[in-house]
Amino acid sequence: MKCEWVKQNVLLYVYNELPDDARYELEQHLARCADCTAELKTTRKFHAMLSELPVEEPSPNLVAASRMRLQEGLETAEQGRFWHRLIFDPAAWLRQIRFAPALAAAIFIVGFAGGIATTYKVVSGTGVSIASGPVSAAAESSITGIQSISQDPGSNHISIKYNTVSTQEAQGSLNDQRIQQLLLFAARNNYNSGVRMDSVDLLTQEPNNTHVREALMYALRYDSNPGVRLKALDSLGAFVKSDPRVRDVVLEALIQDSNPGVRTDALRLLDPVRADSSVRSVLQELARSDQNQYIRSQARIMLAQLPEFD
Amino acid sequence: MRGLMAGQASRIDDTLLVREAQRGNRAAFEELVRSYDQAVLRLALHLTGSEHEAQDVYQEAFLKAYKSIGNFRFECSFYTWIYRIVTNLCLDHLRKRQVRKEDAPVATDAAGEQYDVLDQVADGRSGANPERDLMRRELGKRISHALEKLTPRERMVFELKHYHGLKLRTVGEVLHTTEETAKNTLFRATQKLRGALADMR
Fold it and tell me: Judged by CB atoms within 8 Å, which residues 50-79 of B form the interface with A?
């Protein structure tokens, strides 16, 4: 009877899916029962045989090609989504405005100017004076959205929650956590590439901090300005050996970056890890068919210096 | 690289990224993609046996995720959610292929050319021992034929458990079913495979 139970559960045992007590019970039984031990052996063997159909890692080329295709797809989808939102979902659109202060300000200024023009017309046309609200132009243009409006029942007390944009200043040393946070934010989000450059520049002084390294990798991948990417790349160079994620990002830059300077630099930085299998396969690809002649020949030279393995 | 075994810390990271992506931040979405896309490709590649189809699954899955991320309510982890999308698409592919292949023993790719599922597999490890290589190739071929005989659902459960090491509980979650059902499906799949490969032992 026990053997029946074991036969049913031996598969789960092999897959490490038995709860502790059942596991213990099963092991106790196996120690005593030759039949069930044989069954376990068969199951293990079968398990190992199935693993002869290996799960391969996707090649760097496949990953890169898939990502590139997806990016195009997202581009199209995003445009569709933007118009869709604009037309069908103004609430979501307004929500987005919260994150685009410049756009919000522009819209308010246009609205305000329109308001003044209308008022002027009304006043000059009919002579009726219109009471202006107590909200000044400056205060109004800093409002980026109204979150909620509620009235206390039975009274005329109204509370409105709204968001505003205001400029603030933070000062401190590079070790200051607040400063670091702001720098990290600026490196990813600022519209002004000069500001991104400055923040990446400062961040490169702290490359051992994981958040900083994350931000530098992000800049290398996504920043639209080649100067910023180059700066990030140079500071990551020291880590291609120790951090496989850095190596992946640098490899990606080598394959995909639109700027030949960045690619050349990436190639140079990868030299210490040229024996790595993923680096090697990329080098072979580059040596065979890259459009850039310098990179092609450089990749060949690096490959030629590799020791033979097989 | 974060693969299937994404740790707790990265899950928390995901939450922030998901929130950003829901607000329309594409860079945040792309960062999410990069955390999971290699695992997605690995799964699709092993399931379909073709880079071409794997790439299609990849593209469809992430576009779908992008379009519907606004509806993600944090009821499960993002990881489970993205795997749901991917497994659903893979199931569609498997079903379509089963219909297509009723009478054709050799798989064909989208261009209509025949391909060998194991051509890509053997490449990386060829070398020292050609005889052993050939045997391994034969064995691999037998295994993938046996796997193709499973129903799409059995195949999926087996794939996620055996080849990608997911816990049965997660498999159940991903496939919108209970752990118990996943377990029974795994038993069934294993029985069938044993039957089909009985002479290989």
Answer: 51, 54-55, 58-59, 62-63, 66-67, 70
